[in-house]
Backbone:
């Protein structure tokens, strides 16, 4: 079958997210989450990366160029891509290189965000966990699972995660699977104001600018 490549969708901000910038998407309310089982996971400061069954990887841009920080993901792709059904892809957060936050206790240099099948349908969270175990991959850290409760979701952010690393924010998604076209009604994020301030202090420089003289590698636990 012909392989189609897709950008990971832009994740809309929750209404109370203080880290949204002027060009970000923000949902007006969370009525579409009401009554549904959700998971909330720690949002980390990495590079959105897609890994396909044919071994291809790319960052958010499908035609992203080679970069030393992506070599680790390329090795992972070489080891596991053949185990994926045709047309499938994995969305990961590439945490190999430091961006604006340095991580000291990572379980792995990439964390699985989502897995998509050949119909461009995101698998349920439980099925994603099964595939992570099968492939030896690490999923994002879940900090809440249950029926959507806005008051509780609002209380989830803390400056540090359970490992003592700085916490950029969190992401909420429905436990059930969903189509690519329904992404904006199934996933939303909270980004801390401190992270927005760090980004603004950095100006228009892309994170790769700090790697002109060598990669600053995050640290495994």
Residues:
């Amino acid at each position: 079958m012909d392989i189609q490549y897709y950008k990971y969708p832009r994740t809309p901000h929750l209404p109370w997210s203080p880290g949204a910038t002027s060009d970000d998407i923000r949902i007006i309310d969370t009525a579409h989450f009401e009554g549904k089982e959700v998971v909330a996971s720690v949002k980390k400061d990495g590079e959105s990366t897609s890994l396909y069954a044919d071994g291809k990887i790319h960052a958010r841009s499908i035609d992203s160029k080679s970069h030393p920080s992506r070599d680790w993901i390329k090795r992972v792709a070489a080891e596991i891509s053949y185990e994926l059904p045709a047309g499938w892809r994995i969305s990961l957060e590439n945490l190999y290189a430091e961006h604006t936050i340095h991580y000291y206790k990572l379980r792995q240099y990439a964390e699985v965000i989502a897995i998509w099948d050949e119909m461009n349908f995101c698998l349920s969270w439980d099925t994603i966990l099964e595939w992570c175990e099968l492939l030896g991959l690490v999923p994002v850290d879940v900090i809440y699972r249950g029926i959507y409760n806005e008051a509780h979701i609002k209380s989830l952010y803390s400056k540090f995660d359970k490992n003592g690393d700085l916490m950029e924010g969190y992401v909420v998604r429905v436990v059930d699977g969903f189509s690519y076209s329904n992404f904006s009604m199934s996933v939303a994020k909270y980004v801390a104001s401190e992270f927005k301030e760090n980004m603004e202090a950095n100006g228009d420089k892309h994170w790769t600018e700090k790697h002109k003289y060598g990669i600053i590698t995050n640290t495994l636990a």
